[in-house]
Give the backbone structure.
Amino acid sequence: MQGLMMHRDLRIIDILRHAAEAHGDAGIVSARVEGDLHRQSYPQTLGRVAQLAHALTGLGVKTGDRVATLAWNGHRHFELYYAVAGIGAVCHTLNPRLAREQLLYIIAHADDRLLFVDADLVPLVVDLLPDLPEGLRLVVLTDRARMPETPHGALCYEELIAGQPATYDWPDLPEDTASGLCYTSGTTGHPKGALYSHRSTVLHAMQVPLCQTSSFRAGHCVLPVVPMFHVNAWGLPYTAPLTGMTLVMPGPNLDGPSLFRLMDGEGVWSAWGVPTVWAGLLSEIDAQGRIPQGFGDLVVGGSAAPRVMIEAYEARGVNVAQAWGMTEMSPIGSHGVLPPRYDGADDEDRITAKCCAGRRIFGLDFKIVDDDGTRLPHDGDATGELYVRGSTVISGYFENEDATRMAMDAEGWFGTGDVASVDSEGRLVIRDRAKDLVKSGGEWISSIDLENAALSHPAIAACAVVAMPHPKWDERPVLVAVASGAERPALEEMHAHMAGHFAHWQLPDDLVWVEELPLTATGKISKLTLRQRMADYVLPELRGGAA
C-alpha cells in the first residue's frame, strides 16, 4: 500500500523562491572585483535570476547544456547558480587556480556552451583562447562602464540581462535532472567530474543545517570563504537562503586583513573555509586585539584543523566545528557539532572531541574495510579505508567509466581514499589519505598525526610530513616546515616536543625548512607537488653512501 501524499519534485529554483517570500530582508552582500561593496535582497536576486534565465534561453541554452563559470564568490555568480539550473542546464564551475592544461581539459571534456568570467580573470581566459573549443561564447561579469578589454564578441553581463522580464515561467523539471558539474582538482591523472542533480543539491541543503545546527540562524550573516568554484562553496549558496541567512561574499581577497574588515563591518556570525585561511585571520585577530564584531561560529573543512588552531579560536570565544566531505559527496559528509553531554565537559575533553571530523549527516552511511574488503567494526580502534553511500553521493563520474569502476565497490559504495576509524557514537576520525600514509618496517605512520603534533610548536607556522624511500624500512617520515618567525628549532627539539605522542621509530628522520609550502587549487597543501620538489632528496643516514 502506498501513502496518499502529493509528489513534488525537488528543484533548486524553489530554494530562492522560498527565500524571496519568507526571508525578504536577507540577501547577498558582495565584495566585488571592481572594488565596491554591493547589496541586494533575495527578492531582488530572484528578479535578476529571472532576467538571466531569459537571456540564457535567448542565447540558445537548452536543457542539459553545460554553462561554465570562472568567477569568485559574488552575487552574479550566485545568480548563475540558480538561473542555469532553473532552466534545466548545468552550471559548471571552473577553478581559476588550476593549471592551464587542466582548465583546457575540463572545458573540453564538459563541452561547455558558454563561459561567464569575472573581469579580473579575463587575462586568464585570453591566455586560454587559442586552445578553447570553437563556438564557446564569453560573457564578462560586470557592467559596461567597467568592462575590460576583451576578445571580439565577448558579451557584458549587465547589458545581457538589462531589459529582460523580472519573472520567469520556471519549467517543471524532474528532480533527477542534472544541475551542477564540479571537477576534482585532479592531483593524480585528469580531473574527474561530479554531476549533481536538483534532488541531491536540495537534499544536501536541507540535511546540513539539521546537523550543523550552531551555524545557521535566520537573520544572521554567513561568510563562505570556501570558493563557489569548489564544490558549490560547500552548499552555502543553497543552505543560506533556505535558512534565512544573508550571504556575505568575499570576492577574490581572502587575506586576513581583508576578511577581518569584511566580517567586522557586516557582523558575520558564521564563517566557513580551509585551515590556511583561518590561520591568516587568526594573525589579524591577534594584531587587532579582538575578534570581528558578531563572530561566533567557525566551520573548518578541506583538511583537518590543527588542535592549536581550534584552541586559539575557542579561547577567543569562537565555537569551532570541523566538517569532512568530498567533491563526490556534494560535499559535506560529517559535521563536528558536539552532543549535549559535552556541555559540562572540561576544555581538554571538548577540544579533543572537536579534533575529529564529527558524525555523519543524515542520509549517508559509512563503512570501513581492510585491504581484503572485509568490513571492520565501528569501535574507534579498527582502521581501514572509508566508503560512503547516500542520496548526495555520486553513483559514477561524468563521462568516465574507467574512473567509476575504480571508485565504486561491488555493492555500490564509493571509496573515498581516506583511511579512517569510526567509534560507537558514530564519530569519524580521518587518520590519513591512503596515499599519504608512511609505511615503515611494515607499520603505518599517520602523517596527519605527526603534522598536528608539530603544529603545536610555536615556531611552526605550517608543515607537511612526506614519506621518503629507505632501503631497509621501505619509507621514513620527513617533516617539511615553514617557520612562524626567526626561530628554527633543530630536529632534536622537535623530537622532544612530539615524543609524548609517538614511539621513537614514528618520529621524523629529518626536518627541512622551506619558505612556503605548495598548495593545491583548493587551498590544501599539495603533497604531490612537494614530493616532486623533493625527488632528489636523500635521508640523512643515507647521504655519502651510508646505509
Observations:
- The domain at 13-354 is CATH 3.40.50.12780 (Rossmann fold).
- The chain has 17 helices and 25 strands.
- The radius of gyration is 24 Å.
